[in-house]
Amino acid sequence: MYIDLRSDTVTTPTSSMRAAMAAAEVGDDVYREDRLVQQLESRAAQLLGKEAGLLLPSGTMGNLAAVMACCQRGDEIIMEDQMHMFWYEVAGIAALAGVQIRTVPGRKGAITAQQVTEAVRAEDIHFPQTKMLCLENTHNRAGGTCMSKEQMDQLCTAARQAGLWVHVDGARIFNAAVALGCKPADLVAEADSVMFCLSKGLAAPVGSLLVGPRAFIEQSRKCRKMLGGGMRQAGVLAAAGLISLSEMLPRLPEDHKTAQTLAQGLANLGAQVDMETVQTNMVRYKVPVPAADFASQLSQRGILAGVTGPDSIRMVTHYQVSRNHIETVLSAVSDIL
Ligand code: TLP
After folding, report:
1. End of a domain among 204, 233, 249?
2. pLDDT in tens, 20-50
3. Whole-number Cα distances in Å, 60 to 57, 92, 102, 183
4. Which 8-state DSSP code applies to residue 301?
5. How much distance in Å is there from the Cα of 60 to the middle of ligand 1?
6. What is the distance in A from the centroid of ligand 1 to the CA of 80?
7. Does the beta carbon of 7 lie inside 6 Å of ligand 1?
8. What's the whole-model pTM score?
9. Domain-embedded: residue 2
């Protein structure tokens, strides 16, 4: 068995999830007859203080459905230039929604209200219309960093003044809330819609939720269908998702502690870690050897890490990574470096 630190997406369902999945009573969710899906959607909405929720197969589809529900083809949306929606969603926003992304440079994943105001297009025959501001919390490429409630609120105020919709890619929003010591609903109180993933640190096998106002969610439901994401007996997935929220969410602080121990240890061994960015369950760092060689030497020792650049590595902690595993990882890194 490998110690797999490539991502928290690698987590496998817990035994209580498997039992709940086996026992799940299901219906056809396109006919809106799956009670477990409905239960999960309303629980998700309630946790984030929004009216309604929608279960989707992936975070990528959740973000895309949100953009499609809000924008017309030819519209423009604003986001920080390292966001997942810009880097890793196969340009679906351009190719499928027909929407242009306007990027703004950030600092550790955050942009300022002034940058938002300046990026909004004026009324001009030549310009697209700005429709949306997208934010990412926690921020993946910045190393799992959090934007505080104050930062989020300021950005939402600037967006609202310009008549923009605010969508949060909150794939790991509960990690952010834990790290900030803030209620998840408070953190996103001023945002219009939020996507979060069950299939990352929350360990469900499949699934993401989009939450927001009821009319928006109904529009997103149509977009999900158009994208081929209408699911039938999805209650087997919702059963696992409900356990993600009840059993896995409260243990996220453990992953943050393991990530701290890992990051400190790596820094002591000469890896270049910006400790300021180690706020949740991710550790991004640079190594003084080619990252691909480093990762392959780790894998020979039974450890998997993500190669994120010529000299950059990402490690993500999750419920299948224990304190003992971290010791094993640090001793392997010590051997290699
Ligand atoms: N992130 C994955 C990879 O795609 C990079 C990972 O291993 O971290 N938003 C954010 C912030 C994400 O980190 C991810 C997945 C998504 C959206 C997309 O979710 P899925 O994989 O469910 O489409």
Report:
1. 249
2. 999 999 999 999 999 999 999 999 999 999 9
3. 9, 9, 18, 25
4. T
5. 7
6. 16
7. yes
8. 0.98
9. no
